[in-house]
Records
---
Amino acid sequence: MGEPTVRRRRLGSELRRLREAAGLTLEEVEARNPALKLSKVSRIETARLGIKAPDLDALLALYGLDEGDEGEAVRAKRTVLHRLARDGARRGWWQTYREIISPAYADLISLEDDAASMRTYQSLLIPGLLQTAAYARATISAINMTSPAERVTGLVEVRRARQAVLSRPSPLEVWAIIHEAALRPQLADAPGVMKEQLQRLLDLMELPHVTIQILPLHTPPHPGLTGPFTSLRFPGTADLDVVLVEHLTSALYFEDPGEVAIYGSAFEHLRAAALPLDTSADLIAKLKDTL
């Protein structure tokens, strides 16, 4: 069996959380509805098995999210969970590149594809969704070190294809806080790359769904000192928000609501410490003009 999709893992994780919140064991679920066998529900929760709409409705009824409930929050939660169930096995365009991208990276692309909004803090790099092709190539080559040119080219194509979420009919809403240090790398072999990248940021700031703030070099100690992070929110409910923390060879996803809330608070602190929007744009333009 192939690697379960991130949609299926998110659905399984949320169903387990709902069951535990309802105070039910797997044995009790089966006792209340014999069609929901313990082994079956366990495999659904661990993302080893998908789920059909009737079984999902039956589980949600046991967990207190009845179809007839008129509460807006319950309706939104049911809609999100049914979408995850329906699309759980769907593979996106990024599967074409499965030979060169890691499962964690595929998960990120899938999450971006489903998300309504993104909040990201970056300390040394321009966020991937905001990069030019030339900047992407320069940074991907540096990070991947010994990768052959064809793999780098493929990764650049993936990064550019990801940016389609900014121009879809209901575009991803992005709020990026970028440390000033990320605006100042010296690309000696391609001096025009950084200038083009800074202009790209200025162009994107004109879009109503893209917000960019710069965190100045001399900012006092702040939560971003631990490193960059990205949080993604999905339509209808905050219960399934996800936070991504990337490392050189791996990535961690945080889905626990308590942990997600901590990163949300960190982002608010960073947003308060960053320059206002107009001042951020002025700084980007000033740095571009010095190149």
---
Amino acid sequence: MDAHADNYLARIAGAIAEPARARMLCALLDGHARTSTELSVVAEVSPSTASAHLARLKDERLVDQLAQGKHRYYQLAGSDVAAALEALLVVAGLPRPTFTPNTPPRLRNARTCYDHMAGTLAVRLHDHFAEQGWLAAEGGRGDYELSAAGAARFEQLGFDLPAMRKLRRRFACPCLDWSERKPHLGGALGAALLQLALKKGWVEQDLDSRALSVPPQGERQLRKAFGISPD
């Protein structure tokens, strides 16, 4: 074993062992990102104490900090961290925590996020694209690039991918969803997806809010296009 490995293991164990930090890590196991304030409530500590705990967890590479506008969110630093925590919970015999959003149902299901789609439907589409192998992480900023299969599928849907790449904006990137706390698709590709969904009637824009509704024919078309249900 590396001479420094045991020391680092002890540091990691110490970071996890503090009760407030352990509660924070367990809360993040569901894959949803949370703010420092939310995690302070979970950990039953003051916001300032929570910030200090999160700094320690970030230093030990147990959590990542995500910036979304003026907000800062925290999530587990990867699947290895989640797997280690899951294993410890198995040893401890504790149930896995769940995330309960309090966003109004109309906005939670589907809505606009500036010029692209957000909400449960958008997160499901993002996850479907990833599961199909159409999206691949590229670059240090966490941007997405399309695989050959992904490019072919989006071109079949009528997307002008070369024109999107010429725009002075990111081509495709994850955008943290504030109700689901998981990523939906942003960038030029995400904006084009929303415009396609509106044009084809997969979703309909409310006149006085960001909410998007999914009419019955939209449900059928989404199943046909991607093999998923919006619910």
---
Amino acid sequence: MKIASLLLPILLACPLLPAAAQTHVGAAAARSVNVSGSAEIKVAPDEILLNVGVETRDVELAPAKRLNDERVAAALAFLARSGVPSKDVQTDFVSIEPQFEDDDTSRAARERSRVTPVVYVVRKNIGIRLTRVGDYEAVLAGLLDNGVQYIHGVEFRTSQLRKHRDAARALAVQAAKEKADALTSGLGARRGAVQSVSESYAGGWWRGGASWGGNRGQMMQNTVQNGGGGESADGATLSVGQISVTASVDVTFAIE
């Protein structure tokens, strides 16, 4: 009987422990403020990545490949004459595609078309890195005059991305601190120590381009317009403008 009488107070006290723990946790969570800060830095691009393509067609594979090789060689020779270093030029994609005719009315013709291609299509891509941004328009036009038919991608970038991201992050942190100060002071409290922090980045480049197919003149026009648009004072049709580097932080501060 004495043992039972001792256990009863203990059992009655146990249900109260979780409630007390929850009250303590809730109080701790209530004494914090979560804020986000973001910043954007505009910088001029100092390098451009181009991805261009050459496509040739012939009823026989050998002539199609030979013509493709000649056009690629002409494009590479033009880049060398333009002062683009060989380390900044790379042939990074090759495709040979036999195409078959499907709409013949003759059964015999259909049987032949399934095993004999009506044309061979040879495609090759060239990746180019330009560090002289002012040469972009002349290089693009010269490539189109020297064997290139397609512009698959144009990417305006900054080579100082790490430096600009660090600067944007510092501004984002300062914005988060100022926001936390405004919130807590308005409630008669003060911003305390940092409890948690996370960050994210974006930007540092601008990308545009097109896939295989289409009109090369339209691709040239769209690329130039997307690259910044407008006409500069010296009569050029390209204005590279600026690209954005952004940083965001989420910070939880204690409230004092």
